[in-house]
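Problem: given the chain below (238 residues), write out its structure.
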Amino acid sequence: MPLPRNADVVVVGFGVAGAAAALAAARAGARVTVLDRGVPTARPLALSRSARSRRALRSGLQRAALAAGVAVHPRCHVHELMMDAGRVCGVGYAAPPSDGGAATARLAETIVGEVGCSSVVLALDPRHWEFVGPAVWSAARASGDADGPPPTARPSPELAVRTWCAAREAGAAAASRQAELGFDAATGAVLMGAGLPVPGLYSAVGGRAADPAAGHRAGRGAALETARRSGAELRSVI
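Solution.
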């Protein structure tokens, strides 16, 4: 399936949280595209009871998301968030050639593209959010309020990249004011250190990586963002 140029909501990752977010956004009326860097693997010979339960939950949510019209694209590595006036407006991705096979090993033939959208839901472990740093710095700079508490001794990958961007563009003082991201528990919105939301950015990862409730909140929040920007009405989600 070719990747679209535009969607209402882009979800990055299709595990439990990502599938829950995609399903909630689709049921709320959004056109949802999922970009997942995973590749289907062979089923292990033996799984623990908890692993079987997680697999069943993930599979059920994924089937429901597909049935709701969600477009899923595997082997897509998202490497940047596109920004416009401090607001998330899409993602940049890289993917192997569509013919697969041996061609996937030829880096020169890697497909690089963009998907424009109204909001993005991150369903990845925050340890892999380094590509988010430049976007958060852009949002902080556009808001005119990039202050926050002092950074931690061992910053997250996202904060490390954002601090570098701040130092390069605004100097050491601005870099020293960067702080770890927060999250709105009601909507899943990603918050800057000052408590301001990064417009158009949501997190489906709650206290636990595999949390369908956090995914649901983020997906619905992203769909609501899309509805606000387009003037459409959000469907109720049961």
